[in-house]
Amino acid sequence: MSEQSEQKQTFDEKFVGRLEKYVRDEDRAALAHLRRGLGKKTWAATEMFPYIAGWTANLSRSEENAYFLVASLVGLYPTYSWKPTEQIKFNNLGKSLSFLKEGSDSIEKRFTALLNSDEEDLPTHLRHIISLLKSKDAPVNWLQLLRDIKFWSSENKNVQRSWAKGFWGNTNTEKTENEGEQKL
Question: Which residue range is the domain that position 61 belongs to?
């Protein structure tokens, strides 16, 4: 990577890149230390400190929580980030879950519970959702997840709306196309 393109990377991108380096290098020790943060409050999993503390020095409490949460989730599901493409409009957790929803009311119920969760309950819901995605080898966009978690509690609910569009977004289009074919 050239020096110029490295400078263009955001802090979030560099952080996710570091997490993906642990995945790429198959650094099982680092991933295990990150995974120990699951279900714990930020700064409660001391094993995570060497991997996270330097990244959170100048962050707000909310941003710090997001970094710790995403790092622990990458430890749970060590996979590369799903990169955006022009063909995928909503490259977020809702879109990731949409690959699994076919014929499953339980996934829709879990997703709805996730959308309704507050910032305090979000880590628990995300841990279950990421475990589900891992069990099906479904893609996750870690960078987008980090960005979304940081804005989870915004009043306009843009993150939740975006995830809903990613999950249910093409349902009506598919139904309309299928109904049109049946009438022919």
Answer: 10-82+89-171
Tell me how far apart the alpha carbons of residues 65 and 19 are, in angstroms, rounded to a whole number: 16
Note whether residue 181 is domain-resident.
no
pLDDT digits (tens, 9 = 90+) for 32-67: 999 999 999 999 999 999 999 999 999 999 999 999
Whether the predicted model's global pTM rises above the 0.70 cut:
yes
Domain CATH number, residue 29: 1.10.520.40
pLDDT digits (tens, 9 = 90+) for 106-116: 999 999 999 99
CA–chain centroid gap for 161, Å, is 15
Burial level of 68, CB count in 10 A (0-12/13-18/19+)? buried
Choose among 61, 87, 70: nearest CA to 153: 61
112 within domain boundaries: yes
Say how far apart CA 160 and CA 134 lie, in whole Å.
Answer: 21
The H-or-E segment that residue 144 falls in is: helix 142-150
Tally the domains of the chain: 1
* Any domain includes 71: yes
